[in-house]
Structures are given as C-alpha cells and as structure tokens.
Write a structure and sequence with these properties.
heterodimer; A: 368 residues; mainly alpha; 40% helix; disordered C terminus; B: 302 residues; alpha+beta; 6-stranded antiparallel beta sheet; 5-stranded mixed beta sheet; 4 helices; 22 strands
Chain lengths: 368, 302
C-alpha cells in the first residue's frame, strides 16, 4: 500500500474507495413518498378521458397520500373494517413482502405495470379497477379473501402467475391485505381523478369525497363473504349421459357457448374473431385483448374443481365477455352440472366439428 | 508524505461516496417519481406545489361559489351536421340472419336527418351535480328503465338515466343475447339473456363520467351507450337533433358536456363546444335556445 502511494500511482487511490463501495453495496432502494401518477384513462374511442390540468397529479397524490399513505408507509383509511387486514404483519411489512414477490409484474401501485409486465401475456392484473376474474362470488361482488388466497396458493394455471405455496399462511394473508389496500386505493384514486378533472373543489371537499368512496368500496370488500355462490343443486354423478347432455347444451342456440369457444371447444368460435364492425378483437375491461378459453387444454385458470367451473358458468367471469349464464338454466338448474361435466370431458373427447355443426342445436327447454 | 496521501485518500473516498450516493444504485435520475432516489427534496417540492395549487384552486372555487342560482331556466336546442352527410357502410349480419337482418343492418354510428341535418343520439348533460336541483325533478328518478333488444338491435341506442334508477335488461328476440355493460368502476354486468329470459336488473355503483358502451358478443355489431348521472339534467337528441333540458339552475355558468359516439367529446364547428365542454348561462323562467353545428370532419366515420 505504502509503495503504491509513494510511487504516486493514481489508480491505487481507488482501492479503498472500491472496497468501501463494495461494502456499502446496493442497499435498499429509497421508496418514493407517493405512488406514480396515474395515467389519464383512454376512453373506448381511443381518446383521453379528460385533459391534464397543471398541478392535477399533485392534488390527486396529496389526497391519496392523506388517506392511504405512500408505498413506504401504507395505511388503510381510519374506518377500515378489521376483516380487510388479517395478517399479524403491519401493512408496511406486507408492502415490503409485496415488493419482494409481486412488484416486478404487478407494479408498485398495483397497476399491473411492473418491469416484467410488457413481456407477459396475459397481462398481470391491474388491481386498480377492483375487478377480479376468478372468484366464488356473484357477478357484481368483490372476491372473498379466500379467493385471493387461493389464487396465491395455486397460481393461475396457464398464465405467468405462479403458485406462492411456499410462503407461510401469515405471509399469504399479508399479501392479500396489501392487494386489497392497493385495490381500494386504485378505485378511490379513479374517482378523485374524475372529480379533480371536472369539478372545482377545495382540498377538504375532495378529501371528504375520497373518504366516502373508500368507505363504500371497503364495505363491498367486507360484504363479499355474504355473496358467495353455492351450487343450486348437488352435483350429479359424472356419467356418459351427463356429458352428452352437457354437449347438447354447449352447442345449443340458447347458451351460445360455441359462439366464442367454438363447436370443439378450441376457443375459435365466430365471436372470437376480430369484430368486422369495429376492427377490434375481443377485449376485457382492462382494454386488453382476450381470447375465449381453449377448453381442449384442460387448463382452468380459475381452478379445476367442479365447483369452480360451475361458478364460471353460473356467474360468468368478471370483466370479460364470458356472461352470467344463470337465466338460461332457470327451469333446469341441474343442467349447469352437465355443462361442467362436458367441459371437464372435452380434453379427452374427439369432437368432430363437422358432425356437430350439422346436428340441429338442442334447446334446453326441449331436453329431459 | 504518507499523511498527505492519507488525507488525499480520505478526500477522494468522501467525494466518491458522495457521487455514489447521488447516482444511487444504477437508478435513473430522470426526475420521474417512480423509484426516485432523491427522496426528500423531490417530494417536499411536489408537496409544496400541491398546496400552492390547491390554495389557488380553492380561491377560484370561492369566487364561483359566491354566485348562487337565482331561479330555473330551460335549455333547448338543435345539434346539426355541417358538411356532407357521410354514407356509412351497412352492418354485415352473419349470424341469426332470419331474426336480425331486417333491422340490424342499419349502421347507427351516425344518424343524420337528411331533411334538417339534425344529429340523433348526441348526449347533452351537466358535468357535475348542481348545488340545488329543481323540486319537480328530485323525485323523478325512481322509475325502472327498460333496456330492450329486438331484431338484434338495442332499442335504446343512446340512453341517459339517473344513477339511482334500475336498468331492466330485456330480450324480445327469439335468439340469445348477452348484454355486456362496461362501466368499469361505475359498474359492470354481462348477463346472458336467452329467448324468453326473465328480465335482469342492473344498477350502477356510481355515476358514469361519460356514456359507457353496451355490447353483445354473440352479435358483434350490436352497440349502445348508457349514461348514468347523479342529477336529473341530461338529454339525448332525437331524430331532428333536438334536445331539451328543463329547469336548470339559472344565473350561474353551467358546465354542460356534449358527447357523441362518433367523436367522443364533441368539438362544435363554431367553437361553442370545445372537447365536450359547453358553458351556458340561463335566465330565470326563460326557455333559451342554443344550437350549434358539428363539422363532419371532427367525427370518426369512414
């Protein structure tokens, strides 16, 4: 060392510096005090929903921070029901867990825009709409905590969402706490954004609107448990006759399953094509392209238990073109199970599209 | 000799660590809020500007709030098209042809009256709930609104309603439809309505800022728009392009909004309406006529 200084070799000076730098390393990245400003939504016509006004993002961020804190110190509104935060971990710890496991896809504010997101299809969920596709609840209800836990435990098969089954139960609950936090926050933020864009209000009025909105959103989360759909009839035995009945219903004019999923269940029905009127493919409520499930794969994103399929058919899939089919079964609720059985059988059947298409479509009213 | 080297070393070390500190760990310092490394200074700055802005805004607000409505007035008018009336391509019907072809082939994206050039299905509505609503209109919002479809056409192509009203989703066709209402966080629904289905109720969670689309995935040409407001001041133009909104607050500047599906927020040819915003002040007990043209070039029609 001494030699090195005496000879005045310049680079020698850097040795301690480099040593120090390597000791310091890449410590924790300082978190921003607030979430990234939300982009102005684009309407269905491809136009911006409103014009950005100067200072608007700062006003929105100010109100949001007041109620929900920032990524470093997130908090729920003062009147949050206890059922929305179950984990023993604080919300800050939950947020930290979220940043370790989820942020790279779902983004810091839960906008589904993490650094990995552009490379994924389907896109990671944007929580801010408050819409979740795979739930046990009715079409207009929020998911239950158990629904979100299930998604974490088993992942979403056929997508980039992995199973987080190696995390312990409290960590899973912590992540659900934080996802609910981001979801409520996102929905309130949207309303605040609309109000700021349209109305001339002072900060206290704005805050009041945001707090009210948060309360009604949180109430919907809290009530989700009361809106779980239980099968109307017990599942009949899985028989060939049941599968056959399901097939008839699947291709029937009433149910119109084949319009999107195709006669062989490959997801290639006529309605799955680009809409000749608008030039657009099928879109979901996040304005992302969505394809009807290819049922020949036997991959069921919302779970493969018969009751999962039953709920997908009975109450549809939120935010997607998959409709609530309940009213088609008003006379024969048990028929839903037959369709479930057929869907379960599709991967193992050799369906001939030509034969099926020439068969007159059976109507459930005429059947049985 | 050694001590001066040591001093230099300490100075260099200090300078370099400062540099590291500022640059951060490979983070960009482009000033974007995401993962900003300079935590405190940046945020206090934005915080300051936020409070500054808000105080400005509240000052403006105070000025406008002092003006109170002095009564009630009625706004009526006609919205007409300037320029050649475009001929839209007919809708291609490939499904349930026997049921659908009779009516569904009319392209409803832009309906212009060839006689008086009036544009049908333009939404005109107050952008925000006024402080006071005319007593006659407070009660009027309980009725259920029917939303029906026949011959693969939504019978109400443009529907304005109060957010407290229920939509009654019906199907008068012998074929199945799914009525997909995409209100985003204002409320979503997508019931399948087979022939003879029981009516399905739907209610929005909150008002929609602008009209939201309703479609049917089984018959992809079917389209409609629904607007739900938290006040009773809205109208949709008829086949003559005429609209009327009665009993609006008078004596204050009203911020109306004008929306049509072929343009989204409307820009009028004469500049009265810019990006959908239309400012009108009414006199008490007077029916005021305000009409304007929309230039065909501002509409997105092929």
């Amino acid at each position: 060392m001494k030699v090195c200084f005496q000879k005045g070799i310049l680079w020698c000076r850097w040795i301690p510096v480099i040593a120090l730098a390597s000791l310091v390393g890449c410590g924790p990245v300082a978190l921003p005090e607030r979430y990234q400003a939300r982009e102005v939504p684009v309407t269905n016509d491809g136009e911006l929903a409103y014009q950005q006004v100067e200072g608007m993002n700062e006003r929105i961020a100010g109100v949001m921070k007041e109620i929900f804190g920032g990524p470093g110190e997130p908090k729920m509104p003062a009147d949050a029901p206890a059922s929305l935060k179950v984990s023993a971990k604080s919300l800050s710890e939950s947020a930290s867990l979220y940043r370790r496991h989820c942020v790279h896809c779902h983004g810091l504010s839960g906008a589904g825009n993490g650094p990995t997101a552009p490379f994924l299809f389907p896109k990671p969920r944007d929580y801010r709409l408050g819409l979740y596709k795979f739930t046990s609840t009715t079409a207009d209800a929020k998911p239950t905590r158990e629904d979100l836990l299930n998604t974490l435990r088993i992942g979403v098969v056929g997508t980039s969402m992995p199973a987080f089954s190696l995390l312990d139960e409290d960590e899973l609950h912590a992540l659900v706490d934080y996802v609910i936090h981001l979801s409520v926050r996102g929905e309130v933020e949207y309303v605040v954004m609309e109000v700021v864009a349209d109305e001339d209000m002072d900060e206290s009025e704005l805050l009041e609107i945001a707090v009210d909105e948060a309360s009604s959103e949180m109430a919907r989360w809290e009530n989700a448990g009361d809106l779980v759909l239980m099968p109307e009839t017990p599942e009949p035995e899985f028989t060939e006759a049941s599968v056959k009945r399901g097939h008839e219903l699947f291709v029937s004019a009433d149910l119109q399953c084949a319009a999107c999923h195709g006669y062989t269940g490959r997801g290639d029905g006529p309605s799955a094509e680009v809409n000749p009127q608008t030039g657009q493919p099928l879109l979901d409520s996040w304005s992302e392209r969505i394809a009807p499930a290819n049922l020949t794969l036997g991959l069921y994103r919302g779970g493969r238990r018969p009751v999962d399929l039953y709920r997908r058919i009975h109450q549809g899939i939120k935010g997607t073109p998959m409709p609530v089919l309940r009213s088609a079964f008003k006379n024969n609720p048990e028929d839903i199970w037959h369709v479930v059985h057929f869907v379960q059988a599709i991967p193992y059947m050799d369906l001939d599209p030509i034969v099926v298409e020439t068969t007159p479509a059976a109507s459930p009213a005429e059947g049985d | 000799m050694f001590s001066s080297s040591l001093k230099k070393m300490v100075v260099w070390t200090g300078m370099f660590s400062c540099l590291l500190w500022i640059v951060g760990c490979g983070g960009d310092s482009g000033g974007t809020p995401k993962y900003a490394t300079k935590k405190r200074p940046a945020s206090t700055e934005s915080q300051d500007s936020a409070t500054e802005n808000s105080s400005k805004d509240s000052g403006k607000k105070a000025a406008s709030a002092n003006q109170k409505a002095d009564g009630w007035g009625t706004l009526k008018g006609t919205i007409t098209l300037a320029g050649d009336i475009p001929t839209l391509p007919a809708v291609t019907i490939e499904k349930d042809v026997e049921v659908c072809k009779e009516h569904a082939s009319v392209n409803e994206t832009l309906l212009v009256n060839s006689g008086n050039r009036g544009i049908k299905n333009v939404f005109v509505y107050l952008g925000k709930k006024p402080d006071e609503v005319h007593p006659d209109l407070v009660e009027a919002s309980d009725a259920v609104v029917d939303f029906d479809q026949k011959n693969c056409v939504f019978l109400t192509h443009a529907l304005a309603m109060h957010v407290d009203q229920d939509l009654n989703l019906l199907n008068s066709d012998p074929v199945s439809h799914n009525t997909r209402i995409q209100g985003g966080s204002s409320g979503e629904a997508n019931p399948l309505l087979p022939a003879g289905a029981d009516p399905q109720k739907f209610k929005f969670n909150r008002k929609t800022r602008n009209p939201v689309p309703v479609s049917c995935n089984i018959h992809p040409w079917m389209k409609s728009y629904v607007l739900a407001q938290d006040h009773p001041y809205f109208a949709v133009t008829d086949e003559n392009g005429a609209f009327e909104i009665p009993n609006l607050p008078s004596g204050i500047a009203l911020d109306l909004r004008v929306w049509h599906e072929a343009s989204g927020l409307v820009d009028s040819a004469g500049g009265e309406v810019v990006k959908g915003k239309w400012s009108v002040t009414l006199e008490a007990d007077v029916t005021q006529e305000e009409s304007f043209d929309i230039d065909v070039s501002s509409l997105d029609v092929e």
